[in-house]
Specification:
Elements lengths: L1 E7 L4 E6 L2 H9 L13 E3 L9 H7 L16 H16 L1 E4 L2 H9 L8 E3 L3 H9 L17
Parallel strand pairs: 4-5
Antiparallel strand pairs: 1-2, 1-3
Bound molecules: zinc ion.
The site of zinc ion has 7 residues, from loops.
Length: 149
């Protein structure tokens, strides 16, 4: 493992661990080394004063268990972007019914409310009851939030 002090185009300084000097170059060239502060991928190694360290002083200064190979300051991952997109689609294509979710899901299932997609909040007990009654509900991987109109 190797620790680099890095600096971005906006002069933010941060430290990051890499498997090797080659791994740093590879990640940097792939645009996967992002500034910890602003996410910029215009990142260079900061120029540091050379220092000579003995074996003992090194063990004091370096953390015992550095993070493994993943860059510590990557911008939004593909998974995060997919989640954001999913959320956008759900919010655009389904009605937000808030805490009325359980009641409304049941009403739609029983034909008392117009058939449509809805999202909202339900407590664990209500959600379990809906599933037991064969009403299709899925937990969303994010907190539902009212759209701002
Ligand atoms: Zn920055």
């Amino acid at each position: 493992m190797i620790k680099y002090s890095l600096i971005c185009a906006e002069n933010h300084r941060f430290d990051s661990w890499f498997a090797s000097a080659d791994a740093f170059e590879t990640l940097k060239n792939a645009g996967m080394v992002g500034c910890a502060v602003c996410g910029s991928t215009k990142v260079e190694k900061a120029i540091m004063a050379p220092s000579v360290r003995t074996h003992e002083s090194r063990s004091e200064q370096e953390p015992a268990a550095p993070e493994p190979e993943r860059p510590l300051s990557a911008p939004a991952s593909p998974a995060e972007q997919a989640l954001k997109e999913l959320r956008r689609k759900i919010e655009a294509n389904s009605d937000y019914v808030g805490t009325e979710f359980a009641r409304e899901a049941r009403a739609i299932h029983e034909g008392e409310s117009p058939r449509r997609s809805i999202h909202g909040e339900a407590n664990a007990k209500d959600a379990k009851q809906l599933i037991e009654d064969g009403i299709p509900v899925v937990p969303l991987p994010f907190a539902a939030r009212r759209k701002e109109n």
